Amino acid sequence: MKYSGIQNKTAIITGAGEGIGYAIAKALAEAGANVVLNDFDELKAANAANEISTSTMGNCIAFHGDAGDVGTIEKIVDFSIEKFHQIDFVIPNAGITLFGEFLEFSPESFQKVTRLNMQGAFFLVQYAAKKMIAQGSGGKVVLMSSQVGIRAYRHLTTYAMTKAALRMLAINLAYELGAYRININVVAPGATLTERTEQEQPDYAGVWSKLNPNGRVGSPEDIANTCLFLLSSEADHINGQTIPVDGGWTTAGKYPEDLA
């Protein structure tokens, strides 16, 4: 399906040098949006933006920097408006996962996770929303939660807390920003095969395909397709909602240990 209301709009996506963020950036560019692609790694951001611009009809430019830093966040938004004169879509996709037992989790690790996952998302949406309100044309935000923010998972307490917090952020902002025609929704990916998850667990796809009710692991494109819908005009009346994209994993919530 070809969604409406995306062409010629401007989108900011953080953490988009690879994986889910990259797939979202590419899907938006293919739909005709102007995309500002952020990644902490300067070379990765530049290569990703170049690949998307070359392979699609869209316009994708890179902006490297730390998406958890408030000063950098403001620069990304200002840069987007300078280049494309508006900001319409925001996807704070950048995030970090740190495993660790709750009783041993250090303050340094806690701050590292919360700084990017919560602070980065909160202030990117805040600063972009101010610009959207000044423009008077509304906008849309898709926050990136996780199935781990819906159900418990061992050794991921801090990460889970941050991802659950994003769901509540969307609920509150849907209520607070709705009058400005700014929609805030959430996608909660399940087991998705990316460069990161493939490094974290050997045979990631093989293990999780056995645990998912639909018998396969998710792809970045599965997440990107859902984001594209939520950013489109067809989703104008959806606000403050969380959509799990997990192949049905959260209906039962089995873990790799259950295969033993």
Protein described:
This protein is of the alpha/beta class. It has one domain (10-255): NAD(P)-binding Rossmann-like Domain (Rossmann fold, 3-Layer(aba) Sandwich), CATH 3.40.50.720. 45% of the residues lie in helices and 14% in strands. The chain has eight helices and seven strands. It has a seven-stranded parallel sheet with strand order 3-2-1-4-5-6-7, sandwiched between helices. Helix 1 crosses helix 8 and helix 3 (70-84) packs parallel to helix 4. The protein is globular, with a radius of gyration of 17 Å. The model has no long low-confidence stretch (mean pLDDT 93).
List descriptors:
Rossmann fold, seven-stranded parallel β-sheet, 7 strands, 45% helix, globular
Series of secondary-structure elements, N-terminal to C-terminal? EHEHEHEHEHEHHHE
Fill in the CATH topology. Rossmann fold
Task: State Rg.
Answer: 17 Å
* Euclidean distance between termini CA atoms: 41 Å
CATH architecture: 3-Layer(aba) Sandwich
Whole-number total of structural domains: 1
Largest sheet: spatial strand order: 3-2-1-4-5-6-7
Low-confidence stretches: none
Structural class by sheet pairing and helices: alpha/beta
Topology, number of strands: 7
The coarse silhouette is globular
Task: Assign the CATH class.
Answer: Alpha Beta
Helix content: 40-55%
Major sheet: 7 strands, parallel
SS element count, helices: 8
Strand content: 5-15%
| Mean pLDDT score | 93
CATH superfamily: NAD(P)-binding Rossmann-like Domain
